[in-house]
Amino acid sequence: MKSRFVIRLYWLGLIAGIGVLVVVALRTGLFGIAAKQFAAPILDPAFAFYDENKDLIDKAVVAILSIGTAITGGLGLLKSYYYADTNLPARIQEMIEDARDRHAHDRRALVGYVSGPFDTADFLTPSLLSNPLAVVLKFIGYASLRTRARDAATDLPRLSKELKAIAVAKEHAENAFVTGCIIRGTCLIREGDEISDDPVTKEKKYKAAVKEFGAAIELRPKDLDALEGAATAANRLAMQEERLQFLEKAIPVAEAQGDVVRGSRHIRSASAILHESTDANVQRAARVRLEATVDRLNEADPKQRYELVEGLLQIAEIQASRGRKPTAKRHLKRAKRLGTSAQQERADILAKQYGIDLS
Fold first, then answer.
1. Nearest 5°: phi and psi at 119?
2. Rg over CA atoms, the chain
3. Whole-angstrom Cα distance, residue 127 to residue 133?
4. pLDDT for 321-330, tens place per residue?
5. Which residues contact 339 (CB under 8 A, 6 or more apart)?
C-alpha cells in the first residue's frame, strides 16, 4: 500500500528520467536530423546556459539527488518499520503459541515428576540460587526434568505480574481498537456526505461506517461516541428503527456519565422518531420523557440553555400539531426569550406555520 506522496514521487522521477532520455536523443540526433533541427532552437540555448554555469548546476543537481536519496531512504526505513510494527502481534502470537504447545507437551511429565518420590531439598528455590549450573545447561539447550519442574514451581511471581501486564495490554488494545473504529466510521460518514453524484458509493460509505461503529460497540457496548456514531450513520441510511435502538442505548449511558446535554439531545432525536409512531401510547410516553428532560435542564448554563430551547421548540411543534396551541405558545415564548437569534427565528416560523400569536 503506497501513499499518494510516494506515488507522486515515483511518477515525478519516472517523468524526469524519460525527459532526460528524450533530450539526449534529440541532441544526439537519435530521432533523426529533422527532429534534431526542430529541437535545436530550444535545446541549444539551454545547453549554452548549462556550459556557462556548469559548476553551479552540477552542484545543484548533486544536492537535489542527495536530498532525494535521503528522502526515499528515510521513507524506505519508515515503511520497513511500519510493516515490522504491523506484523509484530503475529510474531508474538507465534512465540506464545510455541511456548503454549511446549508446555502442554511437558505438563504431564512435570506433574508426574513430583507425583512420585523425588528430592525436595531446595526444590522450591529458584534454580539460579539452588543450582546455577542447571541454569547454564538450560541456556545452552539442556534442562533436566527436575530443573524444568522446579522452574515451573518457582516462576509464579513472574507469571502473576505477566498476567496483570497482559490484562492491561488487552484493555489498552481494546480501547485503541474502539477509538480507531470510531475515527474510521466518522471519516466514512464524512466521505459519504461529500459524495453528491454517486448514490451507490455514498450508501456503501454509510454502511461501512455502521460496520465500523458496530465493531466498536461489540467490544464496548456502553461507548457513547460509538453509539452516537452508529445512530448518525443509520440516520444517513434512513434506518430509523436501527437509529432508535442506538439512541435508546446511548441515553442511559449519557445519564450515567452525567452528560445532561448529550443525553437530552438523544432523547430529542428518539422522541422525533417515536412521534411518527401510530401508537398513541408510544407518542405520549415519548412526549412525557421529552418534557421531563427539558424540565431538568438549567437555563443558566449556556450549553444546557441551547439544548433546553431545542427541546422547547420540539415540544411546541408537537403540541401545535395536536391542536394544543396555548401550550405550544407558552413553549415558543420561552424559547424566544432564551434562544439564540437562529432559534428565535425558528420559533417565529413555527408560530406563523400554526397560526399562533406570540405577542
1. -80, 115
2. 36
3. 9
4. 889 999 999 9
5. 306, 309, 312, 313, 346, 347
Q: What is the pLDDT of residue 136?
A: 87
- C-alpha cell of 98? 510455541
* Cβ-proximal residues to 277 (8 Å cutoff; 6+ apart), any chain: 283, 286
Half-sphere exposure of 107 (CA within 13 A, CB side): 6
DSSP 278: S
The string of DSSP codes covering 192-213 is: HHH--S-HHHHHHHHHHHHHHH
56-73 as b/e, with b when 16 or more CB fall inside 10 Å? Answer: eeeeeeeeeeeeeeeeee
C-alpha cell at 151: 522452574
How far apart are alpha carbons 247 and 257 in whole angstroms? Answer: 15
| Residues 116 and 155: beta-carbon distance below 8 Å | no
Q: Report residue 50 as a C-alpha cell.
A: 548549462
Q: pLDDT value at position 118?
A: 87
What residues in the chain have per-residue pLDDT under 70?
Answer: 1-6, 9
Distance CA 266, CA 328 (A): 22
CA contacts within 13 A on the Cβ side of 223: 22
> Which has the closest alpha carbon to 233: 249, 210, 250?
210
Give kind and range of the element (H or E) at residue 220. Answer: none
Choose among 186, 251, 253, 187: nearest CA to 221: 253
The confidence score (pLDDT) of residue 45 equals: 80
Residue whose C-alpha cell is 417515536: 274
Secondary structure of 308-357 in the HEC alphabet?
A: HHHHHHHHHHHHHHCCCHHHHHHHHHHHHHHCCHHHHHHHHHHHHHCCCC
Identity at 148, one-letter amino acid code: R
Please tell me the predicted confidence (pLDDT) of residue 5: 64
For 317, residues 6+ apart whose C-beta sits below 8 A from its C-beta are 328, 350
